């Protein structure tokens, strides 16, 4: 049985990060989505511990990591990921990032390509401006929730509240996350699993990174940097993600060594809806 060990990683500015290592093999580091959420990769780790030493972590100020006041910048989070790499003694690693975590993993690879064997970019939104995807995402979110009119009405009611209790925040999140799944009979159940381990959403972190992305993504400088990234990259998409997949074309065009895997029956969390296809894509990157 693969051994699992939880540890505390201390950053150079004294913030304590929760981290966990499980399995044996080449090192694989997972970067969770958000921003402002926490690691939800238990199933992913469990499916890969026979292929890799899987490292999970909660980003600063989120989940099981210690409280802090930021800073909420990509530069700081890249430094936190570097602290985790040093803590576990990883000379090089395969990085897997999901959603916002795909942006973080890409940022780390651009800053430290010599430390990365390969990048697995899952359900990201590319390197273009928000106009490539955000309006489409919003429309698709409302349309999918609207398939259950009472669900859409409740989500809107909770969203419009200026202040929400923890229970209301969790309910709103589960309703919104249900739109990420393709199976409309089990979507609420699958979203509920994401919230079984619940922590406060770091809204300050979320707002800061969304503002940073609007300033720095979609620039010629970012495109040029990706053109110079001499690493194998596997882009994994669920074809039915409510974020328009065409947004990722900008990244695919820029990267010199890229392979794209599209899982036709999956949404934003492809490991939940096509576990076999997802595992095959990741294990290929590990090789």
TrEMBL record:
GO terms for molecular function: aminopeptidase activity. Pfam families: Abhydrolase_1. Residues 26-271 form the AB hydrolase-1 domain. GO terms for cellular component: membrane. Keywords: Hydrolase. The keyword Transcription does not apply. One of its GO terms (biological process) is proteolysis. It comes from the Bacteria. Belongs to the peptidase S33 family. This is Hydrolase. It comes from Streptomyces olivochromogenes.
């Amino acid at each position: 049985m693969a051994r699992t060990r939880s540890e505390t990683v201390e950053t150079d500015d004294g913030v304590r990060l929760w981290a966990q290592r499980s399995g044996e093999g080449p090192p694989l580091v997972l970067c969770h989505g958000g921003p402002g959420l926490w690691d939800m990769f238990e199933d992913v780790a469990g499916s890969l511990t026979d292929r890799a030493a899987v490292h999970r972590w909660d980003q600063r100020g989120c989940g099981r990591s210690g409280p802090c006041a930021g800073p909420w910048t990509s530069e700081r989070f890249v430094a936190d990921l570097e602290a985790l790499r040093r803590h576990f003694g990883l000379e090089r690693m395969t990085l897997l990032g999901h959603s916002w975590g795909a942006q973080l993993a890409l940022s780390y690879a651009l800053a430290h390509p010599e430390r990365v064997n390969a990048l697995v970019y899952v359900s990201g939104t590319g390197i273009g401006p928000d106009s490539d995807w955000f309006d489409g995402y919003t429309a698709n979110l409302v349309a999918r929730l609207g398939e259950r009119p009472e669900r859409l009405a409740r989500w809107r009611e909770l969203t419009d509240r200026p202040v929400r209790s923890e229970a209301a925040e969790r309910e709103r999140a589960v309703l919104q996350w249900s739109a990420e799944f393709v199976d409309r009979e089990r979507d609420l159940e699958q979203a509920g699993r994401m919230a079984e381990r619940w922590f406060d959403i770091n809204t300050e972190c979320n707002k800061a990174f969304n503002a940073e992305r609007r300033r720095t993504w979609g620039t010629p400088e970012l495109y040029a940097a990706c053109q110079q990234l001499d690493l194998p990259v596997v882009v994994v998409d669920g074809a039915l993600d409510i974020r328009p997949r065409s947004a990722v074309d900008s990244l695919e065009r820029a990267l010199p060594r890229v392979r794209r895997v599209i899982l036709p029956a999956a949404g934003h969390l492809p490991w939940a809806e096509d576990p076999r296809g997802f595992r095959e894509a990741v294990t290929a990157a590990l090789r």
